[in-house]
Design a protein that fits this description.
The chain contains 14 helices and no strands. It is an all-alpha fold. The N terminus is likely disordered. Helix 1 runs antiparallel to helix 8.
Length: 428
């Protein structure tokens, strides 16, 4: 779950929610546009290569740069820590560069150009995510929305030009990266430069305690983001190794569409459910009023998400799967039902049980739950894909999501017990 969800606890008015929801919709629309373009204007093999590079730089970015967004979101006054932040950014960039060089040297990427694309993509995605977390933490929701608008406009216009004149999937990749870099640089210039780079003369002074404090706070959120990003890598790597790049291209379009649609809806439900609950719990604890309101919100959110999943299962072949090429649509018929249910369970866990963990401020448990899903997904893909093909990858996500749901439910059992006890006790 994004750290940005907590920002709404300090927001006033429905417009802030609308800005955040619209921004998420625009960010998701970029992904839908990419799926349509890659699936219909390029071969499945080209799409598979694109997908592997994309998921690789997303994972590296989560490892190296997500900590910065989590920290800047939570702490508004960074005057005392700005030098340590700069030093950690430099260290993260160095680690990112070493990872990319290692991928190229050991043959995990095809060319040096691909390695450069991965490095640039990791920096662009990290920068865009950081500025949006920075804006959310300071309740600048209109700028949060405008950065998403600018990203969508740039991506759509450059991809259109690329299709007209340069039919190369890597040009589309560069368009996506450029569309993230520009808003990140603009927002950094407006709000971040002076705050971070104020005393450059002290850049050589290292405060280990301060740096460790930053890392300790950010570590659980990094683990969550890294695990979620790695889930998209493992199935693509295994499919590519066992079945080839063409199969990767035929699979990831359906996967991206399903997760984007279900995940975007869950994000909106979370904004309406989790944030008010966090604010109320901080003020009231396990009061009867809080427990009744919380259960009502959770029931409504669960029913809304279940309705969306059923709608996707019923209408997917006639609606959003039409964005795929005819060959991809035909292949998707064998696994989209399993994939939709697996994605639904995954986002349901985040919506319900991770909301409870956020209320309890047990982010370390959230990170462990994410790792449980990741490990289950890795093992499932290795075991099932060689025998069941693309359906095996979908089954793996379903099983891993179920495992994560069971673990998260078990770890929040005492909270639910307190909620039900307070509700029943009030009625008596």
């Amino acid at each position: 779950m994004s750290t940005g969800i907590v920002a709404i606890t300090r927001a006033d008015g429905i417009m802030n929610i609308l800005y955040l929801a619209a921004a998420r919709a625009l960010n998701g629309s970029v992904s839908l546009l990419i799926v349509f373009v890659l699936s219909n204007y390029f071969t499945p093999t080209e799409y598979g290569r694109f997908g592997l590079i994309l998921s690789t730089y997303m994972t590296i970015s989560a490892l190296c740069f997500f900590w910065l967004g989590a920290y800047l979101f939570r702490f508004h006054d960074i005057q005392k820590t700005r030098i340590s932040i700069v030093q950690l950014v430099l260290l993260s960039t160095f680690i990112m560069a070493m990872i990319v060089v290692g991928l190229w040297v050991f043959g995990f990427v095809w060319t040096l150009f691909d390695a450069a694309i991965i490095a640039l993509g990791a920096i662009a995605l990290g920068g865009f995510s950081v500025v949006q977390e920075f804006l959310a933490g300071r309740q600048r929701y209109i700028f949060y929305f405008l950065t998403s608008c600018l990203r969508f406009i740039l991506a759509a216009s450059i991809i259109l030009v690329a299709l007209l004149y340069l039919r190369d999937p890597m040009v589309v990749m560069l368009a996506v990266i450029f569309a993230m870099l520009v808003p990140a640089m603009i927002i950094f210039g407006m709000f971040g430069g002076d705050a971070i780079f104020g005393e450059r003369s002290h850049i050589g002074r290292i405060d280990c305690d301060q740096m460790m404090s930053i890392i300790r706070y950010s570590a659980p959120f990094v683990a969550i983001a890294l695990a979620n990003a790695s889930i998209n890598v493992t199935d693509r790597v295994v499919i590519g190794h066992v079945l080839g790049l063409k199969s990767v291209g035929l699979y990831i379009g359906t996967q991206d569409l399903t997760i984007q649609i279900v995940g975007a809806a869950a994000g909106v439900l979370a904004l309406r459910t989790a944030a008010p609950s966090i604010r109320t719990f901080d003020a009231q604890g396990f009061s009867a009023d809080f427990c009744r309101a919380f259960l009502r919100r959770m029931v409504l959110a669960s029913v809304g998400l279940l309705g969306l999943i059923l709608l996707c299962l019923a209408l997917a072949p006639y609606t959003y799967l039409r964005l795929l090429s005819p060959e991809a649509q035909q292949v998707a018929g064998g696994f989209y039902v399993i994939l939709t249910i697996g994605a639904g369970l995954f986002v349901y866990t985040n919506l319900v049980f991770h909301t409870v963990l956020m209320i309890q401020k047990r982010t370390h448990v959230m990170s462990i739950a994410s790792l449980v899903v990741l490990i289950g997904n890795v093992v499932g893909n290795v075991v099932l894909v060689p025998h069941y093909g693309l359906s095996g990858a979908a089954i793996s996500l379903l099983l891993a999501s179920t495992l994560g749901l069971v673990y998260s439910g078990f770890m929040t059992r005492h909270f639910w017990g307190g909620v039900f006890a307070a509700t029943i006790g009030d009625k008596e």
